[in-house]
Amino acid sequence: MRIERFSSQAALYTRAAAIVIEAKQHGATTFGLATGGTMEPLYANICKAAIDFSQCISFNLDEYVGLAATHQQSYAYYMHKHLFHAKPFQASYLPNGLAADPQEEAARYEALLQQHPVDFQLLGIGQNGHIGFNEPGTSFDSVTHLVTLEASTRQANARFFQSIDEVPTQALTMGIQSIMRAKCILLIAVGEAKREALERVLAADYTEEIPATVLAKHPNVIILTDLQERGV
What we know:
This protein has 232 residues and is an alpha/beta fold. The chain has one domain (10-46, 54-191): Rossmann fold (3-Layer(aba) Sandwich). The chain contains 7 helices and 10 strands. It has helices spanning 9-25, 40-48, 75-84, 102-115, 151-157, 176-180, 195-202, and strands at 2-5, 30-33, 57-60, 62-64, 91-93, 120-123, 145-148, 170-173, 184-189, 221-225. The strands form 2 sheets. A 7-stranded parallel β-sheet has the order 1-10-9-6-2-3-5, with helices on one face. A 3-stranded antiparallel β-sheet has the order 4-8-7. Helix 7 (195-202) links the parallel strand 9 and strand 10 (221-225). Helix 1 (9-25) packs across helix 2. It is globular.
């Protein structure tokens, strides 16, 4: 695990975009993508960069259950708005939030992931240490599955909806094992609210109660943060 600390978010996101571009230049063709406010500046930088993903494929970490791809708060809509409109991929896969049987959809998505191993995975980190929508207590052996979102996760995402009542209660997410199969992982953690979770990861405090701590077992993780070490 390698950590790089930045005094400004602008410098952090410039570096993040450079890492993505370097991965592509070194042969990465399958990208695992994340959403949320943490990723927006990264995608804005990538959209301005001289990089072509037209021969690459992408897999998103997760999608809300119950939202159509055209819904403005779906992650399919987010990806088109922030990245795919400017940088289309040969194929872009996301779970189908309107699947009649979410369990079957999870199995279908996991099968696709296993057919197309991810070369480079983007991750954010939740305040409770979740990665994807893998909430505390999720088995490190989990593959793509249906999850009921914790109240804290729904509250963190409520700012994107008119009220918390509109935030879906379930999602489909890559499992922790699914994420850990990626050859390289880039984790971005910005803001003081992420400090406790990040420090648990850096301490290699390996526990399913903090899902992101599983990253201590991965051989190729890069962490970018604007959080300085305590006392520095």
